Amino acid sequence: KCDGNRWLELAGKVHKAGLKTNATMLYGHIETIEDRVDHFIKLRQQQDKTDGFQCFIPLAFYPNGTALSSLPGPDAIDNLKTIAVSRLMIDNFDHIKAYWVMLGKHTAQTALHFGANDLDGTITDGGELTESYAVENGEVKMSRAELITMIENAGFEAVERDTVYNRVECQAA
Length: 173
Known about the structure:
Radius of gyration: 16 Å
Number of domains: 1
CATH class: Alpha Beta
Order of helices and strands: HEHEHEHHEHH
Low-confidence stretches: 126-132
Strand content: 5-15%
Largest sheet: 2 strands, parallel
CATH architecture: Alpha-Beta Barrel
CATH topology: TIM Barrel
CATH superfamily: Aldolase class I
Number of strands: 4
Structural class: alpha/beta
Number of helices: 7
Mean pLDDT: 88
Distance between the termini: 40 Å
């Protein structure tokens, strides 16, 4: 694993080659608020240079089963604040993802009102890894119809997309 500066350097090279990538931030463990802000500033600067990030994915840390199991991990308020601050600080990213498996369905749905514009998660069996950080009773899957309903009930239009954010025509759920 490389440090953050090396990662940004490599991301820049990938972007200059014409490829898009995603950026993440694991939060809710040992970092400070200042660390998070620094992370956002570095991502923003890199995006200004290359315009190569297609999406930001905040990853909530869940301590169960880790060496940091004594830590509480982030709560729903921290999750929503992190998404809101990401939308404000890295407004040069087109997409901010709310990953419902990690956030829980209700918090992910609410995140759409806090700056997230991409609701994502497993809609088939997630597997052992996914189940380890699922916050709602180990729930790691939902139907396409449920996902669409969740988005529409939040007051938004559900848009199906491919992995590079091209709109695809939705078929009946």
